[in-house]
């Protein structure tokens, strides 16, 4: 009997954690008020986790665009359609690679930072001190970071796409000698704002919410030890990456 109970607990533990995460999200959303303090904290966290992630986003976006154009040219030259490289690069970037790769980079750069920061606050009893002073730590700590993640990721995705297109231009036109007019005309005539660009932006909004929620949840519920903080950051990266790919498939199936 004790063994059966332990097995049941192990099986039900993920469901219980999903429920706790859902209640945590509702608790955060219930604390949204149009207050100056919340706006200031959100803007500050947007700078810390968003603006400070720009460098890695721009560098990775540039080289992803170069790699995409290289692979596209090698594949399309076999069919005599190398002038379609901008179409292939644009479609794959705006619809899939842009929001997904940005979300994965954001989870590794900002998600771990948020989870570790909140976990360290718990380990040093700062959260307990707020509760003793009748301050809601979820509203004061978790909510601004969650909102900052939702705001930052669409902007970072747009920046990733822009630098990826720049990388494709540098390689395709500068190195391979493709005609600039053909490159830009194919891109402009075949990339649609509502379907391609906005579809990727909506994905990035959802991905930003997923990564930010997981980061603040695991950080807030981390064990108040060094090992607990490390476990929280590791789980943030792993679970965020898996859920981003799962939700990417779900959203793509509806957006097509």
Characterization of this structure:
- With 256 residues, the protein is mostly helical.
- The chain has one domain.
- The chain is 86% helix and 0% strand.
- The chain contains 9 helices and no strands.
- α3 runs antiparallel to α4 and α4 crosses α7.
Task: Spell out the blueprint of helices and strands.
Elements: H1 2-30, H2 36-49, H3 54-76, H4 85-123, H5 126-132, H6 137-175, H7 180-190, H8 193-220, H9 226-255
Helix pairs in contact: 1-6, 2-6, 3-4, 3-6, 4-6, 4-7, 4-8, 4-9, 6-8, 8-9
- SS element count, helices: 9
Quote the distance from N terminus to C terminus. Answer: 50 Å
Helix and strand element order: HHHHHHHHH
Overall body shape: elongated
As a percent range, the share of strand residues is: under 5%
Considering the chains and any ligands shown, give keywords for the structure.
256 residues; mainly alpha; 9 helices; 86% helix; elongated
Short description:
By secondary structure, the chain is mainly alpha-helical. It has helices spanning 2-30, 36-49, 54-76, 85-123, 126-132, 137-175, 180-190, 193-220, 226-255.
């Amino acid at each position: 009997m004790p063994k059966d109970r332990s097995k049941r607990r192990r099986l039900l533990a993920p469901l219980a954690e999903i429920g706790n995460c859902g209640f945590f999200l509702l608790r955060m959303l219930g604390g949204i008020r149009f207050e100056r303090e919340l706006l200031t904290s959100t803007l500050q966290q947007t700078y810390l986790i968003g603006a400070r992630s720009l460098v890695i986003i721009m560098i990775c976006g540039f080289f992803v665009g170069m790699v995409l154009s290289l692979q596209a040219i090698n594949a399309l030259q076999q069919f005599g359609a190398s002038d379609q490289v901008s179409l292939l690069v644009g479609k794959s970037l705006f619809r899939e690679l842009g929001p997904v790769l940005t979300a994965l980079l954001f989870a590794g750069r900002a998600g771990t930072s948020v989870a570790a920061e909140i976990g360290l606050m718990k380990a040093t009893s700062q959260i307990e001190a707020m509760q003793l002073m009748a301050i809601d730590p979820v509203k004061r700590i978790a909510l601004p970071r969650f909102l900052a993640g939702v705001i930052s990721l669409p902007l970072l995705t747009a920046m990733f796409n822009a630098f990826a297109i720049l990388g494709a231009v540098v390689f395709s036109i500068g190195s391979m000698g493709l005609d600039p007019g053909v490159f830009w005309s194919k891109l402009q005539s075949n990339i649609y704002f509502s379907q391609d660009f906005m579809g990727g932006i909506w994905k990035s909004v959802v991905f930003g919410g997923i990564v930010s929620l997981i980061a603040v949840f695991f950080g807030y519920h981390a064990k108040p030890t060094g090992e607990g903080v490390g476990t929280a950051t590791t789980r943030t990266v792993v679970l965020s990456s898996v859920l981003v790919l799962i939700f990417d498939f779900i959203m793509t199936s509806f957006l097509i």
